[in-house]
């Protein structure tokens, strides 16, 4: 059980526990409270200067967040006010508990889509009360999952969704989301509820064939989309003009709402939001399913959505933390996210997380602390209490164009190219997730991507490299002769390096590989009339661990070499492996005089005399 | 897709393909035929001397094999003649196609038990014709699975059942088998068909409570068992007397049969074999299910039994090959085993494999080639055609005692202790398999053991060691300061070694670990009023691979260190990792002057001047 132990040794003893050492009980309690609510810590040093930064950032983020929220609620097949509720309650909780200074909290596109897709798989009628209740249940369990991962310090599980898998998943989801938005953009009345690309394209084709589209809607939608994409481009080119892109969605909403109101386009078939329920969140604790058949389903949906939401938030958090150089405790973040979603589920919200686009705006607008989330929350509160009637004439087409513009960020072709260049297996995982999302569904896509990622590790562990080392002229360094062509081999010696820990999956491969190299090198040397190999030196520097299968295959290797009158020599054996070799008495079989600190040492002892070299 | 490629490069190009180079077509055909049927190769050099060795070995093995066969058939709930058929047909096929010189082929205890347990899970009535047909179907698919693994060169999959898992599985199976034999040994009429220990003990208890046992049977059974265990002990102590143990079962059978015949004990409730169908194998090709509901079940049973059978045979084969120093091509062995089981399934046999006990006897009796299997086969043929009526009075208790004596070998306490010493995770896999067999069933046990083994790999890959290196006085060698307490650290430098390939599962852990070491070391050095660390040197010698997540975490590490005014230096970067660093332009970010061939080189360039050291 070493790994867990080593995981905690340094982190806890030195940073977490040291803080509490020798303090009074009251002080300990205060420190503990501060550790759960970082706001108690940074709040004491909060300045007017901080407030200015946070205020502007919060305001800018809010102007992006409100139209996005209304749009994302549609992805989850829920009424817009639930998303606004989420943007009011969850940022407050996060501001108190979160440790990132840049994340902006609220519903996010991919998580909303995932939630919507999984919910409608179980309950087809989106207007039914059951659907809403299952949504709260899923949100509750998403929070519980996140909290549990944080409390149990299982944050590492998030890393099991590899970077490549996330890139593929997000790109695929962006395409699916955009395709679904064609419904709003073109004003198509009937659209599939499935998320795959085939069904989506089918619906669009069907609508075109039957002329089920609305010209006014198309004009509003496409002009907004073009405007949004242009402002986005400007924001990207000139970092100082990022605010143009940030307020563009709100501008679109206001302009298009006024246009519809003046022209009464809603009477010409342009669908509008019509009604957003105003006022504050209602309590939904009694709506959550705690028994019955929907508990298990709600848990499944919640667990998946919660983990995907965490992946997004943690990855954003890490990026900004590295950029501004502060440390982010992954487990603490999970506790904050979990609590905020649990609170959200009790107050009529659905799953919220840190969103890519808003966090970027928040950061660029100069946020200083998590207090920007409080500002954001207050703005949303004002909208909820005062301005909901304003959205009566807001056309749905605008929301669709906002979603499409927001999701273009998620398709990251450069990242895909880089993944292809770096690692073909990673690329497979990426494509697995991408095509999984596009042609199947989001859950399968995740399973495929995670499976491919793990198969990669098993593959690599099963067939490690065993390379031949040579001496680099003028030094006592031995390196891979393929990598350093100047490195030369030693007379009558074969020096090999095993590039992996030796486990049951690869121990026979490693043994066979060593014997094959021996045979091959002997043949090659015989052709050049060089001396036969008498010593096989195995450089164990990369062998970080060995298991019982590995030990017995080394035993067999020793016997095989013995029959060939070749001596087995080990060099640079690590601590763990050395202990196991001693436990299994293999050191005695091989002989202690055959185990060296370095390859150079082995060559000096058993190699040719200096004049022969 | 590198791993597969590298797997084949050397083995095929140099040994397999080279043989065919520049040969005529006829010659190529002959070579190909020889490669499939090694008998065509070694048969040409066969001498009288070889024959003598093989004849004695075959005869000795047969005397052990015949009583064992009759007993093992009971484990599979089949009639004894099917096992004898298997010992007649399959050794012939193996002799022609196999490449091991020591394996003795026939039904084996664990595989027979596994087959019986899985078959009776699907069909409860052992006497029904369906049961027999499903047994043939399973045998057929066991052969197909083995053949497929060999032809597709997927032999490495066998290694996924780790040594530790096999030890646990075999020990558990031995206990279960022995427990079930109490039925025969005590003469209990009603016994559970389940394989777990609870049901077994329940049946025995029940029989004792209701006095459902037979004194004569107990006397015969226990005296035979004592005799067998004593001879076994003698055989182990004095290697030359191994034949005493080898012929002991046959002696027991003959003596007890005569006793029963003379005393007519069968009329006093001693159950006997009664009837073994004589004559040669009947064709069973038309009995195999090729459609209907039993095809899938037959396939599942066959695949599991086939893989377990292979594991046993390959592990024996490897042991003897290493002992006598000849190479064994795992894939070719699988083709031989697969063919022999397919042929077996067409001729009324059930799954055969290389058995531990018989192969050991075969080897000790001085077998020279696979021809000993032919001798064995001929002896079984004689028994089948001439001597089956002899077994009419053989008591079942003798068979039970033979099985118990044979399976005591499989409980390997020394191996378990060694596994505990070497690797605690391996021990968990071993115990998982053991308790899985004892309390659940054989299939679950396999799944549990394989899962634990893989979780181990993932664990180790997720939390690799990151160790601090120091310079060993008087050398330019840098090693783990925990392992070599004399190694000292360099002023203003922190030298770390990452002991694993860097993948998505561990990249954040590695990054955090490096930063924590930096913080910790800086604190420690500040306490001793030593200079602050300016350079972090990462020894990459054990980092055999890196993926795209790893690259981006290194990028983040670089930025984090930059903020702390600490320079990142890499040493001893391997070929694969170097290529990836270049592809991702990380080499340019870090700076080419920060990448060194060795740690010593980095210290010479950036470390303190010699006089300061």
Automatic annotation (TrEMBL), chains A, B:
Primary site of residence: membrane
Keywords linked to the UniProt accession: Membrane, Transmembrane, Transmembrane helix, Transport
Domain of life: Eukaryota
Gene3D superfamilies the record matches: STAS domain (3.30.750.24)
UniProt cross-references to CDD domains, sorted A to Z: STAS_SulP_like_sulfate_transporter
UniProt keyword Iron present: no
Residues in STAS domain copies: 483-606
Family annotation (PROSITE patterns): STAS (PS50801)
Transmembrane spans: 103-119, 131-154, 160-179, 213-235, 241-262, 301-323, 335-357, 369-391, 397-420, 432-455
Membrane-protein topology: Multi-pass membrane protein
A single GO cellular-component term on record: membrane
Intracellular or extracellular location(s): Membrane
Family under the similarity heading: Belongs to the SLC26A/SulP transporter (TC 2.A.53) family.
Family annotation (PANTHER family): SULFATE TRANSPORTER
Protein name in the entry: High affinity sulfate transporter 2
Organism: Arachis duranensis (Wild peanut)
């Amino acid at each position: 059980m070493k790994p867990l132990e080593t995981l905690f040794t340094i982190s806890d003893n030195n940073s977490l526990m040291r803080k509490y050492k020798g303090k009074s009980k009251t002080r300990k309690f205060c420190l503990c409270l501060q550790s759960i609510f970082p706001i108690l810590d940074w709040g004491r040093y909060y300045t007017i200067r901080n407030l200015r930064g946070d205020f502007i950032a919060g305001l800018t983020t809010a102007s992006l967040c409100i139209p996005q929220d209304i749009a994302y609620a549609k992805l989850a097949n829920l009424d817009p006010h639930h998303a606004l509720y989420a943007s009011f309650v969850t940022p407050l909780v996060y501001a108190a508990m979160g440790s990132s200074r840049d994340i902006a909290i609220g519903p996010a596109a991919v998580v909303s889509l995932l939630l919507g897709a999984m919910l409608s798989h179980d309950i087809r009628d989106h207007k039914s009360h059951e659907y809403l209740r299952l949504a709260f249940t899923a949100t509750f369990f998403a929070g519980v999952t996140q909290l549990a991962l944080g409390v149990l310090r299982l944050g590492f599980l998030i890393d099991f969704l590899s970077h490549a898998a996330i890139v593929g998943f997000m790109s695929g989801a962006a395409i699916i989301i955009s395709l679904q938005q064609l419904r709003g953009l073109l004003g198509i009345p009937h659209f599939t509820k499935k998320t795959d690309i085939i069904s989506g394209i089918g619906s669009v084709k069907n609508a075109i064939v039957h002329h089920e589209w609305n010209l006014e809607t198309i004009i509003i939608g496409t002009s907004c989309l073009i405007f949004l994409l242009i402002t986005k481009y400007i924001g990207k080119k000139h970092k100082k003009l990022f605010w143009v892109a940030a307020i563009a969605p709100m501008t679109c909403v206001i302009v298009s709402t006024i246009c519809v109101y003046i022209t009464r386009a809603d009477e010409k078939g342009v669908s509008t939001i019509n009604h957003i329920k105003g006022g504050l969140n209602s309590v939904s604790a009694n709506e959550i399913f705690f028994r019955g058949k929907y508990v298990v389903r709600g848990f499944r949906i919640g667990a998946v959505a919660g983990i995907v939401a965490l992946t997004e938030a943690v990855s954003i958090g890490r990026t900004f933390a590295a950029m501004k150089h502060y440390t982010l405790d992954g487990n603490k973040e999970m506790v904050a996210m979990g609590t905020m979603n649990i609170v959200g589920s009790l107050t009529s919200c659905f799953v919220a997380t840190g969103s890519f686009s808003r966090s970027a705006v928040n950061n660029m607008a100069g946020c200083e602390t998590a207090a920007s989330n409080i500002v954001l929350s207050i703005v949303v509160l004002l909208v909820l209490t005062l301005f909901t009637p304003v959205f009566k004439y807001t056309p749905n087409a605008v929301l669709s164009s906002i979603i499409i513009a927001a999701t273009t960020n998620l398709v990251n072709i450069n990242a895909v190219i880089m993944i292809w260049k770096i690692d073909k297996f990673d690329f497979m995982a990426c494509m697995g997730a991408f095509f999984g999302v596009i042609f199947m569904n989001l859950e399968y896509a995740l399973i495929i991507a995670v499976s491919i990622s793990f198969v990669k590790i098993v593959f690599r562990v099963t067939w490690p490299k065993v390379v031949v080392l040579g001496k680099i002229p003028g030094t006592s360094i031995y390196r891979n002769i393929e990598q350093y062509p100047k490195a030369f081999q030693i007379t009558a010696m074969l020096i090999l390096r095993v590039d992996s820990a030796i486990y049951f999956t690869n121990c026979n491969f490693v043994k066979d590989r060593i014997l094959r190299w021996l045979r091959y090198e002997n043949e090659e040397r015989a052709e050049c009339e060089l001396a036969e190999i008498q010593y096989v030196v195995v450089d164990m520097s990369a062998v970080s661990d060995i298991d019982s299968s590995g030990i017995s295959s080394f035993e067999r290797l020793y016997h095989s070499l013995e029959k060939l009158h070749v001596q087995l020599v080990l060099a640079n054996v690590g601590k763990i492996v050395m202990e196991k070799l001693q436990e299994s008495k293999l050191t005695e079989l091989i002989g202690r005089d055959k185990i060296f600190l370095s390859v150079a040492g082995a060559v000096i002892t058993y190699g040719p005399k200096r004049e022969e070299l």
